[in-house]
Design brief:
Length: 345
């Protein structure tokens, strides 16, 4: 069976989709799984054990100059790559017009079908053409976690059942250590990163940020327990905030700006991550690190890891939500809880 997954962006959304690969390979071990994704996020998909071929595009870039010679040539190359195979199932997991068009462009086998979501789910983007261009549209419960949504679409499309406790058992199959010899990782590894907690403090949305003074207080508590602090960043503003936080802590390290491959490898060797709702935090979940994800909005149910009160089982990643923002004490208690779960046999 040849299957094409269409999930183009963004980093967090792509990471949320990774568990479908494990689900499909469990149901159909011989399945060939290909994936269409924006080039910026291809490094993560290539790290997913079970993905056969990654077809890259740059739709975000191309739409800025759709009629340029460069765009026309790049589009033709993409189209050729996309149409090399004939698929038994093409599954649009994005739910947007652009992903519907990509799905329609892919070739099907004689019995192949295109699948998409039939409806919008709470808090998620959705555009009607995704169901108009599909052979089968799959209806979903409106209130569903982003990881679970993708898993349910694939299960219904391909005819397998998820385990009853599926919400607690996503397997991301994200491989680390592939690029460990890079200069950036070698420099980071000079520090004892196994005793390092990473602060993923940055977000493109100001209203998702946690106060700098809170990061400093949390860092001081972690320092007292023997942890070092590393700060990651993806922009000039985030780099400055990293320096502001690091300057008030003992031995805190501001990492250089890392590409996705280096970031996966660097994070994988650490003791864990505390972060706001961001791609970096979702990467921590995919790597099964001890992780606390901070929410100022009641959206943790949709994109965050399991909340502390969702289950009686111990979990390694949790969400901390409060309005206007979680307190340092609340985040600290969540960190102690995930470390207690990590320490269990």
């Amino acid at each position: 069976m040849k299957i094409l997954l269409v999930k183009l962006s963004s980093l967090g959304d792509v990471l949320h989709t990774l568990p479908v690969v494990h689900d499909i390979k469990t149901a159909f071990p011989e399945a060939q799984i290909d994936w269409v994704v924006e080039s910026s996020f291809a490094g993560v998909v290539r790290r997913c054990d079970g993905v056969n071929n990654v077809v890259t595009c740059e739709l975000r870039k191309w739409r800025k100059a759709p009629f340029s010679a460069e765009t026309r040539q790049a589009w033709q190359t993409f189209k050729t790559d996309l149409q090399r195979e004939k698929y038994d199932a093409v599954i649009d997991l994005q739910g947007l017009t652009k992903s519907a068009l990509v799905s329609k462009l892919a070739k099907l086998s004689s019995t192949g079908k295109r699948y998409a979501m039939a409806n919008r789910t709470d808090g998620s983007s959705y555009e009607a053409p995704t169901r108009w261009l599909a052979d089968e549209a799959i209806r979903l419960a409106p209130h569903v976690n982003a990881v679970q949504r993708a898993r349910e679409v694939c299960a219904q499309a391909l005819g397998y059942k998820l385990p009853e406790n599926a919400i607690f058992t996503p397997k991301y199959r994200l491989l680390s250590g592939v690029n460990i010899a890079s200069a950036a990782i070698s420099n980071i590894a000079k520090n004892d990163i196994k005793a390092t907690v990473v602060f993923a403090h940055g977000s493109s949305r100001e209203d998702k940020l946690w106060p700098v003074s809170y990061w400093v207080e949390l860092g001081q508590r972690l320092n007292a327990q023997g942890y070092g602090i590393a700060l990651a960043h993806g922009s000039a503003a985030e780099e400055q905030r990293s320096k502001d936080i690091a300057s008030q802590l003992n031995g805190a390290v501001v990492w250089p700006r890392l590409g996705l491959d280096d970031l996966v490898d660097a994070l994988a060797g650490t003791a864990g991550v505390v972060g706001v709702d961001s791609g970096l935090s979702h990467m921590a979940v995919a790597l099964d690190l001890a992780h606390v994800q901070i929410y100022n909005f009641d959206t943790a149910w949709r994109t965050g890891p399991t909340a502390l009160n969702d289950s009686q089982i111990a979990v390694r990643q949790v969400s901390a939500f409060a309005v206007p923002t979680p307190s340092v004490e609340a985040v600290w208690q969540a960190w102690l809880a995930v470390n207690s779960a990590t320490d269990q046999p």
